[in-house]
Amino acid sequence: MTMFCTYVLRSKKDNKLYIGHTQDLEKRLEEHNAGLVQSTKSRIPFVLVHFEKFATRSEARWQERKWKTAWGHKQLAKFLSKQSVL
Q1: Residue 8 C-alpha from the chain's centroid
Q2: Which end of the chain is more exposed for a tag (fewer CB within 10 A), N or C?
Q3: Quick one: which of 23, 48, 45 has its CA closest to 34?
Q4: With the C-alpha atoms ordered 72, 78, 82, 86, is the resulting torsion angle positive or negative?
């Protein structure tokens, strides 16, 4: 069964988060760290700080969009601070 995930990366360069979704998390993280992603290539290297799996791409995209809102950023920051990631 194909799974999709929404992920959160932290840049080791500027300590900022990047949120995305993908079907292949390992490959996508490699692409980010190789500088192959236009929006993140100036901020490499990245570490994976959180991900969630979903059965469909639309569910993963919905979660990504939610996290990218102001409310979602606050909720994600609370969650990550409880996980000792921030």
Answers
A1: 2
A2: N
A3: 45
A4: positive
Q: Which residues of 58-68 are buried (b: 16+ CB within 10 A; e: fewer)?
A: ebbeebbeebe
| Domain count of the fold of the chain | 1
pLDDT computed for residue 84 by the predictor: 65
* CATH at 8: 3.40.1440.10
pLDDT value, residue 15: 92
Q: Which domain holds residue 26?
A: 4-82
